[in-house]
Amino acid sequence: MAQPVLDEISSSPVPPVISPLTEAEALRLREDFPVLRQQVHGKPLVYLDNAATTQKPQVVIDRITNYYAHENGTVRRGVYKLSEQSTRDFDATRVKVAQMLNAASPSEIIFTRGTTEAINLVAATYGRTFIQAGDEILISAMEHHANLVPWQQLCLEKGATLQVAPITDAGELDMAEFDRLLTDKVKFVAIGHVSNALGTVNPIKAIIEKAHALNIPVLVDGAQSAPHMAVDLQALDCDFFAFSGHKLYGPTGVGVLYGKMKHLEAMPPYQFGGDMIYSVSFEKTTFAKPPAKFEAGTPAIAEVIALGTAVDYVTAIGLDRIGAYENELLTYATARMLEIPEVRLIGTAPEKAGILSFVLQGAHPHDIGTILDREGIALRAGHHCAQPIMQRFGLPATARASFSFYNTRDDIDALVQAVKVVVKLFN
Amino acid sequence: MSDYNELYQQIILEHNKKPRNFRVLDSANAYALGKNPLCGDQFAVYTQLDSEGKIEDIGFQGDGCAIAKASASLMTNAVKGKTRAEALQMREEFQQLLRGELDESAPHHLGRLTILSGVREYPVRVKCATLAWHTLGAALQGQSEATTE
Question: What is the DSSP secondary structure assignment for residue B116, as one 8-state letter?
Fold first, then answer.
């Protein structure tokens, strides 16, 4: 018997209702970050450079301190208590990251020094093995240097061609051009999830589906997405995903590469040495299985363990709630900044994360940065390691405010007030 | 008065808004392009030298912040009519000024360029102020490119 229509309706997916963090919660969470309690040049610090690096909660700082004070022992090779405990905690982070990103297995999580090294790893192993002369690699015009230069250099080495999908004046990926460039000559797609210079959120699920229809693997640069939104790798079905620990409230010097196991097994090792071997003789070496195959030498043990604490911290808050709150901040900041006639926003895509890039008539971003610093406001002024984007918009640089869940509307009001000071000085 | 008013003095803001000698010099016989890789700013400096190495005319063009542009503007005014050796001496003294190594009470050749001494308090901006000088130095020494790195 046919099911009634009602059942069909009730079985259709209902988007989950996400309740953003409240400002009261944000203010409470802000207390977890000791660095935010200070004054800079006599003014309360307003930290708005979260796309460059985020501040660290006390639990992460304590985790590193405690590790070195009481736990320090190498991983994987010691038979004594300290080493066993370090190994257990180190691998626990692998599990936590896999759960946070919904990877199929913790063995698909490789620890690197950061997003840059993660992408270099893929270019140096998968790329060198599977990209041939005449092949094409497709990226977008909004990539930061970390997801551009490794592919450019690989193309030079292999005689392949780097194709660059253009962006619109609003800073959106031009999907018609992307579709045109996505031919069967393309053997790899590398795309940023969120642009660090524009804030644009790319339609990566659709991109991955289009690429997979042609059997093209896709690397997603998640440096600006993993800390600010819930990411489900199995739902996305991407082949590789990279992010940095220090942008996710964890330590510097540690990052993550996710790779589908079928790729990791097919790829040669990245670096050679201890811990990545299965057996060694003077005649022959056989290599360990992933992830050890890609983690040569003593890793950043304290940093990886503390990254696990950072993952616990953001997971407990809820990355979807963090993203929703930061979007509210972005909406508020956009409206307030547009009250200033001299402000021009760079990157006005409808789908954006908490990044607000702008220029001011009459004032160079560096001058904005210096004056804002003296008002206690830390933001980025420069090309954001994304020079082609600046060229696309005919600018040497922009000023960029980027938000975290510990920012509030008061922070944005302080930014607007300080920008008005700059306008007055320079006009 | 906020402390950045010491840096952004009226004369610097005025030179930023209306930079002197902000033009391509068609008659240039020495030229260099200077870049600050950190921020992407760049200036081209054009100089017209006579047979004895005296700077008869000078121009510059490019993108830069107020500090970089005002410094370039003031520099072009200051070195016009100077010999190559005198201009290079001024460059050295200007760098010493921003490093805090110049004894300003002793004789020097900087004149009103000392107005930029406030940049000393902003170490990351020293490269902005010296970009044009690096570029001029390269042009006078027969190099086509300069960098602040």
Answer: G
Enter the pTM of the model: 0.92
Give the A window 316-375 contacts with B, CB below 8 Å.
362-367, 370-371, 374-375
For B2, which DSSP code?
-
Distance from C-alpha of A75 to C-alpha of A300, rounded to nearest angstrom: 10
Farthest-apart Cα atoms in chain A, separation:
76
**Amino acid at residue number A223:** A
DSSP E strand stretches across B4-138 = 30-36, 41-49, 55-63
Residue A363 to residue B66, Cβ atoms within 8 A: yes
Contact state of B8 with A425 under an 8 Å Cβ cutoff: yes
pLDDT tens digits along B96-124: 999 999 988 888 999 989 999 999 989 88
What's the rounded mean pLDDT across residues B38-56? Answer: 92
How large is the ipTM?
Answer: 0.89
Beta partners for residue B47, in sequence order: B30, B58
Residue B76, Cβ neighbours under 10 Å: how many?
24
**Helices then strands, each counted (H, E), chain A:** 16, 17
Look-up of token digits 């900087």: B110
Q: Indicate the burial class of B39 (C-beta count within 10 angstroms; 0-12, 13-18, 19 or more).
A: buried
Backbone region of residue A38 per phi and psi (left: phi > 0; alpha: psi in -120 to 50; beta: other values): beta
Distance CA A142, CA A177 (A): 14
Q: B136 vs chain A: nearest CA distance in angstroms? A: 21
Q: How many CB pairs under 8 A join A and B?
A: 54
Q: Please report which helix (H) or strand (E) contains residue B124, including its range.
A: none
Residue A122's nearest CA partner among A194, A187, A196 is A187
Interior/surface letters A398-418, b for 16+ CB within 10 angstroms, e for the rest: bbbbbbbbbbbeebbebbbeb
**How far is it, in rounded angstroms, from Cα A347 to Cα A343?**
13
Give the pair of three-digit tokens for residue B96. 């010493």
Q: Which residues, in sequence order, are bridge partners of residue A400?
A: A357, A380
Q: Which helix (H) or strand (E) holds A165?
A: strand A161-165
- Other CB atoms within 10 Å distance of the CB of residue B113: 21
